């Protein structure tokens, strides 16, 4: 007893010390749970179903102990090496199957989408977002309704209208890098300004705007809650949620995150509503699907797009810039392609994209080399199923293990290496950084376009190399990745040298001439009444 109360005191101290102690706190909670429940080893064993092979689970906690304090990426990769393409394991009593093959993931999640499109319960992350974040919602009428609103502003025809905005924002990024190497601030502004302008007509004019930092902050906690095994442990034992607040500090914490997130989304939603120009908030309000739900929920529909879109675009841009700095010959190859297709007299445009296969391959390879969402977002089944002789019960969590798929040496030889050529040599190669089936990323067209145009222009304009300090090269660790449920390259330094005085002139001239007024740009985007009703 003294042991437990000491432990609890220690937990409380750590909690008040700093949010960074969260991890340690959760380790203690995990040990705490473990010591309580170890007494209960007499629980019924899960029925002996014909499941894919996998590591032996312990009673009560399943395989969770094997994930704590280790990188789940490595643990799961090893499991796949030991047990095959499909691996069963358990979070407590919850059955999960990790799928390490693109074809099997397509078979299940896409072809059998009718029963593979739900999500596991993310109690804490869902609490942090008022239960209104569509990305972690079960397949339901609410999801369908929200999905309809999102699709109407993110399908490929809608996204083609956003080129004017991406054109202007990428020109600003080019001009910013003439006078600074702080590309991190520039790509944050770029990603943030695109989604905030489309969402609410709020353009981020300078890199000093606080919105990108705020978006990162409200994302960090639910991302952690989805990806971090310690949190998932708490979700396994709903009884923990019944503990009084002082023993369950995460409850207060989740409530604080929820309050901040709601405030953030509602504030911007009101601005978008009041704006005189078209934007996603207004489009949602005037849609049929939007008229059926509360304004708080609507604010979350658009807010979720901000949260997901901003961080995804930022993360992938940072990843590609890292790949470029570490692989100068790839930059040289891309520049040869740009010099040939575009020439020295103008910036690359959207019309050039189909004629830039090498840059296309670089983008694909970056997302293959270090998948931004290594486990996608887990799906869940809603009915029993049979596949390749296996029985897959209703309620099974299905993890599309994008990381394992990406590192399959039979499909991607030398998988650790960044080799854009593989996509050129074999045009049949497939991967799916945007997920699968009905839950596939609805923002993939917007993400792809806004990343492609900026990267093509950056490589056209700049040599991008290692940064130097006091004559010494600042090294970059290729595998410095912050892992939550996303795998995000840790910010690093690089140097941007404009490739010629003439290019500098074009960058300055184009920026001078482009229309920077978000209201005018959004007016161009506003659809004809009959198109989006
Ligand atoms: C640019 C790179 C991006 C990557 C690599 C990416 C990746 C993903 C992945 C893997 C999923 C899960 C799919 C599944 O469940 O099978 C997803 C879902 C989602 N993404 Fe993206 N995404 C990107 C950009 C965006 C953008 C720009 C937006 C919004 C503007 C966005 C909004 C969403 C939403 C709302 C979902 C949830 C879908 C659902 O659960 O129904 N994403 N994304
Ligand atoms: C850019 O890189 C190329 C190839 O490495 C080099 O020849 C050229 O001098 C560099 N230009 C500038 C402005 O640094």
From TrEMBL:
Key word Electron transport present: no
Amino-acid positions noted as binding heme in the UniProt annotation, renumbered to this chain: 441
Membrane-crossing residue ranges in chain numbering: 23-43
GO molecular function: heme binding; iron ion binding; monooxygenase activity; oxidoreductase activity, acting on paired donors, with incorporation or reduction of molecular oxygen
PROSITE patterns on file: CYTOCHROME_P450
Keyword set includes Ion transport: no
Domain of life: Eukaryota
Cofactor annotation: heme
CDD domains registered for this protein in UniProt: CYP64-like
Keywords: Heme, Iron, Membrane, Metal-binding, Monooxygenase, Oxidoreductase, Transmembrane, Transmembrane helix
Similarity section: Belongs to the cytochrome P450 family.
Protein name according to UniProt: Cytochrome P450
């Amino acid at each position: 007893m003294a042991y437990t109360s000491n432990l609890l005191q220690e937990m409380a101290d750590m909690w008040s010390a700093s949010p960074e102690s969260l991890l340690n706190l959760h380790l203690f909670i995990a040990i705490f749970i473990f010591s309580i429940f170890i007494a209960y080893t007499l629980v019924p064993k899960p029925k002996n179903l014909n499941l894919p092979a996998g590591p032996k689970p312990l009673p009560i906690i399943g395989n969770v102990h094997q994930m704590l304090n280790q990188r789940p990426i490595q643990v799961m990769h090893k499991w796949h090496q030991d047990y095959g393409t499909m691996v069963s394991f358990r979070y407590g009593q919850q059955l999960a199957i990790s799928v390490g093959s693109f074809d099997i993931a397509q078979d299940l999640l896409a072809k059998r989408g009718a029963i593979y499109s739900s999500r596991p319960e993310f109690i804490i992350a869902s609490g942090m977002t008022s239960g209104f974040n569509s990305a972690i919602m079960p397949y339901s009428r609410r999801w369908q309704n929200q999905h309809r609103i999102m699709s109407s502003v993110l399908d490929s025809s809608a996204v083609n209208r956003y080129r004017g905005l991406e054109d202007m924002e990428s020109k600003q990024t080019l001009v910013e890098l003439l006078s600074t190497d702080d590309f991190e601030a520039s790509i944050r502004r770029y990603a943030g300004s695109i989604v905030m302008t489309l969402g609410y007509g709020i353009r981020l004019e300078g890199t000093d705007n606080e919105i990108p930092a705020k978006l990162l902050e409200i994302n960090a906690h639910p991302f952690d809650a989805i990806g971090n095994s310690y949190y998932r442990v708490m979700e396994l034992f709903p009884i923990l949620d019944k503990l009084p607040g002082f023993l369950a500090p995460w409850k207060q914490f989740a409530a604080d995150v929820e309050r901040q997130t709601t405030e953030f989304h509602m504030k911007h939603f009101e601005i978008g509503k009041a704006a005189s120009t078209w934007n996603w908030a207004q489009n949602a309000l005037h849609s049929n699907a939007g008229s059926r739900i509360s304004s708080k929920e609507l604010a979350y529909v658009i807010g979720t797009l901000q949260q997901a879109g901003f961080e995804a675009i930022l993360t992938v841009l940072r990843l590609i810039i890292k790949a470029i700095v570490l692989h100068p010959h790839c930059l040289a190859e891309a520049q040869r392609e740009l010099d040939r297709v575009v020439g020295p007299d103008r910036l690359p445009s959207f019309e050039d994209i189909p004629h830039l296969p090498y840059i296309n391959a670089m983008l694909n390879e970056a997302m293959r080399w270090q998948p931004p969402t290594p486990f996608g977002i887990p799906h869940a089944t809603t009915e029993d199923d049979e596949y390749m002789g296996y029985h897959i019960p209703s309620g099974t969590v299905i993890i599309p293990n994008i990381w394992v798929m990406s590192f399959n040496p039979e499909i991607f030889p030398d998988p650790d290496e960044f080799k854009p050529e593989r996509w050129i040599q074999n045009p049949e190669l497939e991967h799916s950084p945007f997920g699968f089936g009905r839950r596939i990323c609805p923002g993939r067209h917007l993400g792809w376009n806004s990343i492609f145009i900026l990267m093509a222009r950056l490589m056209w304009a700049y040599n991008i190399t290692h940064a130097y300090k006091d004559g010494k090269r600042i090294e970059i660790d290729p595998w410095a990745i912050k892992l939550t449920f996303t795998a995000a390259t840790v910010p690093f330094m690089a140097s941007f040298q404009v490739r010629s005085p003439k290019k500098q002139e074009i960058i300055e001239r184009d920026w001078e001439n482009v229309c920077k007024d978000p209201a005018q740009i959004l007016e161009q985007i506003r659809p004809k009444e009959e198109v989006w009703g």
